[in-house]
């Protein structure tokens, strides 16, 4: 019986960090084996809708008051579906509480199958799974595992021949969706058409024990998180390699930094030794340790200098160390509202509790709360050096969203993001800067862009947005672009009542901004990125306009002064009461 109590405890305790499976395997005080508990929970979750129906119709919970809804679901699963039945001595009171009703339970289970027009248990299982996916909205929704090949240590060709040798290429992301009851990873691979060296595999694929992963040849990084470095360095090769140094100002845990280094490696010819070219930093000392480990694991120590605990805003753009900096990538802290919960804890439809049963949390559908857990990168990086793995989870990069929109916090974030960007634009030799967030809110995205473009530093430096037609090929092809008003994250429809709008941005500006949304066929969370470029022509136009304006002001002032003097003279004349006729 301990198996069922262990499963109930696992499902009802507050979630701590890590995947659901790893939480079971690292849980203490379990009496059953983790494998047994995991299998029971996963199998029961496939049948929950039917089991809840059977339990309700047979009135089990009103007849057996000792059973909680969740415990009943697990026990009835094993009673009706597991080959060996309930895993407890026949004399155990809870086993008896279920088996006393075996005729009724069996009859309701059969009726449930017949109602769905299924002739066999297999057909029944497939129908029930389809029903479950339709009900939870996950039907047709693909959220793959994204894998970036690190060009410092390997190449896409090499990885296709080794790590992915047994994988079959598919032509669409949709083919990575689980089929039937197959929620486990199948060996399928999709080459991303937008980001070079990025592949997608079914979500359950686990590379953490693969040599390629341990050696930093592959990095588990979400597709959207690859946009900023690609937008900055693009499809350059040895012939048109990036000139100058780069800064990643908000870099931990280091996904985008190592991506920059990987793209630079691709541009370098083999005989040319890479010089230090990327300065990266994070204001948090603890997160900087993770950053350094990620950089080393990716083999990027030759290219990347980590400035631990460095506040980007305190960096002096005039410092001679940065005089060759031509590009900056800024991915500051944000609300994280675009991060989709990777909560892999199975969600159960439960039977109705008996009227006199006082349920604990077992009676509710569990959803992980952001503050249940301690999953910020800050906390994670407190682990041992050997714990540090290339990050795959956007939650490692950002705050975990609470689901509630705190307007004051968004305003503060937006102000800080704008300051950070204005500081980036003040690097004297910078020509390209990218700005990104994993937020869906206009106030952190297009609105920040609008504020930056309106700033003195942008106007004086001749900064404008990197137009879509100037973007690297993969980004040009990406169709989801900037929006003028906030959108409903579910329906993607504009929120008419939203008072915030970005009226100063032109249609061309919005087309320059790149958006990602969760819940569509792209397999991503919410993300935003925009590139800024210094345009000398634009600068001179601005300077010219400014100097014309200045000139006009000076002229006006001069004229004003002359007039004043004339008037004064007149007044003086008026005041002169000397000679008279
Ligand atoms: C969204 S995360 C960056 C994720 C990272 N770019 C990646 O791809 O792995 C934001 C990071 O910015 C850091 N940060 C926030 N403000 C900063 C500042 N003023 N200077 C330097 N780092 C800052 C935070 O500590 C946090 O680690």
Automatic annotation (TrEMBL):
Family assignment from sequence similarity: Belongs to the class I-like SAM-binding methyltransferase superfamily. RsmB/NOP family.
Keyword Transmembrane: no
Name this polypeptide is given: SAM-dependent MTase RsmB/NOP-type domain-containing protein
Positions of region (Disordered): 354-406, 477-500, 541-581
Domain SAM-dependent MTase RsmB/NOP-type, chain residue ranges per copy: 135-535
Binding site for S-adenosyl-L-methionine: 250-256, 282, 311, 331
The keyword Transferase appears for this protein: yes
Sequence ranges of Acidic residues compositional bias: 561-581
InterPro entries, sorted: MeTrfase_RsmB-F_NOP2_cat, MeTrfase_RsmB-F_NOP2_dom, NSUN5_7_fdxn-like, NSUN5_RCM1_N, RCMT, SAM-dependent_MTases_sf
GO molecular function: RNA binding; RNA methyltransferase activity
Organism superkingdom: Eukaryota
Active site as annotated: 438 (nucleophile)
GO cellular component: nucleolus
């Amino acid at each position: 019986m301990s198996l069922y109590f262990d499963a109930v405890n696992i499902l009802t305790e507050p979630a701590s960090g890590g995947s659901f499976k790893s939480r079971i395997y690292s849980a203490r005080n379990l009496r059953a084996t983790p494998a047994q508990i995991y299998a029971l929970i996963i199998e029961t979750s496939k049948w929950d809708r039917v089991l809840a129906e059977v339990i309700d119709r047979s009135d089990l919970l009103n007849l057996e008051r000792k059973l909680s809804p969740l415990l009943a679901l697990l026990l009835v699963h094993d009673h009706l579906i597991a080959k060996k039945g309930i895993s407890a001595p026949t004399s155990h009171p809870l086993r008896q509480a279920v088996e006393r009703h075996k005729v009724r339970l069996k009859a309701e289970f059969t009726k449930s199958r017949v109602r769905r027009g299924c002739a066999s248990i297999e057909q029944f299982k497939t129908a029930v799974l389809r029903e479950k996916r339709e009900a939870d909205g996950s039907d047709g929704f693909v959220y793959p595992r994204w894998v970036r090949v690190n060009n410092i240590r390997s190449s896409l060709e090499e990885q296709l021949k080794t790590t992915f040798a047994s994988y079959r290429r598919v032509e669409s992301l949709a083919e990575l969706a689980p089929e039937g009851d197959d929620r486990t990873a199948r060996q399928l691979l999709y080459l991303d058409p937008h980001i070079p060296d990025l592949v997608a595999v079914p979500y359950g694929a686990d590379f953490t024990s693969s040599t390629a992963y341990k050696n930093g040849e592959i990095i588990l990084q979400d597709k959207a998180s690859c946009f900023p470095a690609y937008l900055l360095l693009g499809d350059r090769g040895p012939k048109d390699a990036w000139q100058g140094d780069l800064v990643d100002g908000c870099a931990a845990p280091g996904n985008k930094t190592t991506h920059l280094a990987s793209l630079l490696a691709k541009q370098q010819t083999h005989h040319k030794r890479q010089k230090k070219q990327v300065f990266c930093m994070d204001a948090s000392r603890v997160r900087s340790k993770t950053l350094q480990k990620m950089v080393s694991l990716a083999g990027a120590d030759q290219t990347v200098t980590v400035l631990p605990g460095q506040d980007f805003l305190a960096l002096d753009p005039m410092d001679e160390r940065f005089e060759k900096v031509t590009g900056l990538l800024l991915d500051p802290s944000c609300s994280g509202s675009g991060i989709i919960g990777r909560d892999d804890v199975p969600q159960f439809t439960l039977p109705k509790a008996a009227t006199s049963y006082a349920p604990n949390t077992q009676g509710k559908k569990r959803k992980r709360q952001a503050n249940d857990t301690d999953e910020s990168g800050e906390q994670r990086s407190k682990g041992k050096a050997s714990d540090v793995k290339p990050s795959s989870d956007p939650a490692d990069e950002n705050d975990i969203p609470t689901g509630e929109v705190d307007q004051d916090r968004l305003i503060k974030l937006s102000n800080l993001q704008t300051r950070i960007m204005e500081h980036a634009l003040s690097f004297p030799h910078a020509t390209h800067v990218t700005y990104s967030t994993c937020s869906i809110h206009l106030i952190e995205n297009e609105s920040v862009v609008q504020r930056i473009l309106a700033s003195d530093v942008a106007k004086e430096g001749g900064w404008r947005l990197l137009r879509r037609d100037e973007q690297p090929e993969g980004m040009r092809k990406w169709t989801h672009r900037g929006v003028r008003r906030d959108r409903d994250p579910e329906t993607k429809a504009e929120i008419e009542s939203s008072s915030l709008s970005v009226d100063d941005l032109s249609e061309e500006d919005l087309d320059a901004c790149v958006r990602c949304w969760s819940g569509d066929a792209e397999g991503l969370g919410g993300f935003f990125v925009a590139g800024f470029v210094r345009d000398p022509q634009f600068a001179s136009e601005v300077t010219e306009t400014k100097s014309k304006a200045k000139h006009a002001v000076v002229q006006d002032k001069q004229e004003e002064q002359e007039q004043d003097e004339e008037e004064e003279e007149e007044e003086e004349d008026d005041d002169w009461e000397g000679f008279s006729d």
